[in-house]
Amino acid sequence: MENTDILHMQKHIFGNLFYLRNKLQVIMDQTLAPYDLTTQQWYLLAVMEEFFQTSPTLGELANRMGSSHQNVKQIALKLQGKGFLRMEKDSEDRRTIRIVMTDKSVMMAEQRGAETDIFFNSFFQGFTDKELTDLYHSLLKLSN
């Protein structure tokens, strides 16, 4: 394959990442509206549920989300106001703030469980197992 073809594909992939981000945000915002959540707020809760066994610090959460400490704090404050989480000082280091999921967020995740599975199955409909595996590894490579 020629360099111009490779460059064209790279540009197309890059542009499609932005397109998909916007498309996902519209779909997710519509889906999450009944729960009074935005895509960003849902993402914070999803990252906590998926990647942390214990309540993370703001810094740990920001790092995992690929976002700034300040941005994550603003999202967390909004979620705290809605009753989805609490921001608590760490018992060992009072300067450290830990993010704790509330019963409300756990119940919402349980309610949405089947709905979430249906959404993901629909979103990735038409992909073979190999295509999903390749996409997964390719996106991990781009993320690092």
UniProtKB/TrEMBL annotation:
Keywords: DNA-binding, Transcription, Transcription regulation. SMART domains: HTH_MARR. One of its GO terms (molecular function) is DNA binding. The keyword DNA-binding applies. InterPro entries: HTH_MarR-typ, WH-like_DNA-bd_sf, WH_DNA-bd_sf. Gene3D superfamilies: Winged helix-like DNA-binding domain superfamily/Winged helix DNA-binding domain (1.10.10.10). The keyword Oxidoreductase does not apply. Residues 10-144 form the HTH marR-type domain. PANTHER family: TRANSCRIPTIONAL REGULATOR, MARR, TRANSCRIPTIONAL REPRESSOR OF EMRAB OPERON. This is HTH marR-type domain-containing protein. It comes from Desulfuribacillus stibiiarsenatis.
